[in-house]
């Protein structure tokens, strides 16, 4: 199995809380950054999504914190899509140190919103495959 898509991030001091740990809300920012980086790498831009009348939405997010992160730590934020038969998909992500130590696991349920109808697209995998120059990055 190949490694999932990932992007490297350095924890910045202003992202930490009073204990010196990475603030819990910033984990979501890192996850979002990795998802948009994957979309760009696959050849899908925000402008193209809007032009096609669709936009990705997050319906649920779960974070499991495993190890603390401190200012200056470098981490790799992974991103892998898991497709089913319905209107939603799962995004599986890890935030891990370069040595492989997992600092957090993030699981999200997402969909692709039709911006006119304000309803989820029936087959988001098909829509992403049609939009992407590199659909393999989505696991399609």
Q: What is the overall number of helices?
A: 3
Taken as a percent bin, the fraction of beta residues is 35-45%
Please, how many domains? 1
For this structure, the CATH topology is: Thiol Ester Dehydrase, Chain A
Q: What string gives the helices and strands in order? A: EHHEEEEEH
Number of strands: 6
Q: What class would the helix/strand composition place it in?
A: alpha+beta
Distance between the termini: 14 Å
Largest sheet: 6 strands, antiparallel
Main CATH class:
Alpha Beta
Identify the overall geometry. Answer: elongated
CATH superfamily: Hotdog Thioesterase
Global Rg? 16 Å
Helical content band? 10-25%
CATH architecture term: Roll
- How much is the average pLDDT? 96
Textual characterization of the structure:
The chain is α+β, with helices and mostly antiparallel strands and 140 residues long. Helix content is 23%, strand content 37%. The chain has three helices and six strands, in the order βααβββββα. Strands 1, 2, 3, 4, 5 and 6 form a six-stranded antiparallel beta sheet that branches. The protein is elongated and about 45 Å long. The mean pLDDT is 96.
Name a few traits of the molecule.
single chain; Thiol Ester Dehydrase, Chain A; 140 residues; six-stranded antiparallel β-sheet; 3 helices
Give a brief description.
This protein is an alpha+beta fold.
Topology:
Blueprint lengths: L4 E6 L13 H18 L4 H6 L2 E12 L8 E10 L4 E9 L5 E13 L4 E2 L3 H8 L9
Antiparallel strand pairs: 1-3, 2-5, 3-4, 4-5, 5-6
